[in-house]
Amino acid sequence: MTLLSVKGTGTLGPPSRALRYLPVSALLLDLAVMAGVFALAVLGRSRLTLFDNLADVSADVMVVGPLALLGWLVLIAALGGYRDDLFGAGTDEYKRVLHASLAAAGLLGVGCYLAKFQLSRGFFVLAFGLGIPALLFGRYLLRRAVHRARRQGRLRYRVLIAGSPTHVDEVAAVLRRESWLGYHVAGALVPAKDVGEETAAGIPILGATERATELARARDADVIFFAGGALTSPTQLRRIAWDLERDEVQVVMAPSVTDVSNERVRMRPVGGLPLIHIDPPRATDASRWGKRLFDIVGSVALIVVFSPIFLFASARVWMHDRGPILFRQTRIGRDGGEFTCLKYRTMVVNADRFIARMQADLGQSALLFKVKDDPRITAPGRWLRRYSIDELPQLFNVLRGDMSLVGPRPQVAREVALYDSAMARRLRVRPGMTGLWQVSGRSELSLEEAIRLDLYYVDNWSMLQDLSILGRTLGAVFSSRGAY
User: Which residues form the Bacterial sugar transferase domain (predicted)?
Assistant: First the structure.
């Protein structure tokens, strides 16, 4: 069904009513985790040999356990751990659960001390030492289940986007790209002068922004996004929020800022005016000694671990055609400096001679040029590429300081020559063996999406993001998704 055919119907289809059960599901999950952890803590206190004196604390736990469990749940709820707009995105959910759990541990300890109740310290340590990680892991599993359901078209919010047609399309593109967020764009509200059939991206225009309250009710929307060009006065948004406060419709502001991580964004209300502060890009942070030290230690460890694979892959390449084992190519590194990038040779000898003709035949740009079923690839080369083993020699580039374990893909001079001013930011950091675009689809991504992800990495670098990318790289390699 197309967007236009949806517009022509009297309604836009029923919203996902299962969304209202997410907080209850999280509550029941937390309750089950806590009960299980308390039982394990009782069992551990009476069985684990790490305690000097084994003891049966079940009688004491029967007294304090229900109160502790109830108090723990109440604290999570009091800190907003079951808000219906919390699930599915961001770290706020984990932070609230963690803070509530630490508060529960502190209050239980202080309460038992003041009441002179002899609660087993071993039980206390086991209950919260196991319980806090278990709760966070349970929420992680719940989030994975929510993301999977949303990609399948369930548990989605029905969204109306208000703003100029251009801004509507920009916001809609982000919501469609990040389908795991669960926002289904049902229609657009635009200024009266722009009312028509649909936006340039094909989103049906339902009416003017002045009728936002009426249309949100009529279309049974869950969320209204207000993008640029939606509001004509500062009081208009406040009036709409007042009108919708009893309709359970979320009002969300979508400023014209994209590809900025939440760590760089701070909200600071001043005199009733919410000001969004954006910290400077973090390209310089990605070049500091901490990341370099991590690269040195990581590359040495990986070289040692993968040494049997190095020997096997080298033998396969040499035995196939007795040609060179390694492919050496000059690439452009940090700040435009050249270096020799090492890879296992996966193509026939002198494969570079054919690349210009192939680009002309296929009509592709030199930028991020890759060909599926490339005829130049050798038999062992296909295997090496499938599992990214051909990239392993670049660990020596990392050790030398030419590259990093994580960063944008290193490119050759003819590709760098095509950079515009924005893309040149990729050269602010060392190129990497793996990066955000590799773990997000690899060669299946469009050129624009690959560039966007690389620039996002440069501007929003953090060590936690590097660790996350390295972890996701294992899944991308073993699935072979997008590798050729």
Answer: 291-478
Axis crossing angle, helix 307-321 with helix 379-386, rounded to the nearest 10: 160
Separation of alpha carbons 257 and 379, rounded Å:
46
71, 105 contact by CB (below 8 A) = no
DSSP letters, 348-379, are -TTGGGGHHHHHHHHT--STT---TT-TTB-H
- Measure the CA–CA gap between 395 and 400, rounded to whole angstroms: 9
CA distance 191 to 390: 54
pLDDT digits over 217-231, tens only?
888 888 899 888 888
Q: Do 46 and 147 touch, CB atoms closer than 8 A?
A: no
| Cα dihedral 47/48/52/55 (nearest 10) | -30
DSSP string, 291-330: HHHHHHHHHHHHHHHTHHHHHHHHHHHHHHHS--SEEEEE
Q: Residue 322: how many CA atoms within 13 Å on its side-chain side?
A: 0
- The CA angle 413-432-385, to the nearest 5 degrees, is 85
Domain boundaries, the chain: 3-13+156-256, 17-151, 285-479
Considering the segment(s) 3-13+156-256 as one domain, its CATH architecture is: 3-Layer(aba) Sandwich (3.40)
Q: Provide the 3-class DSSP secondary structure of residue 222.
A: coil
pLDDT digits (tens, 9 = 90+) for 415-463: 888 887 778 888 888 999 988 887 876 556 677 778 888 888 888 888 8
Residue length, the chain? 484
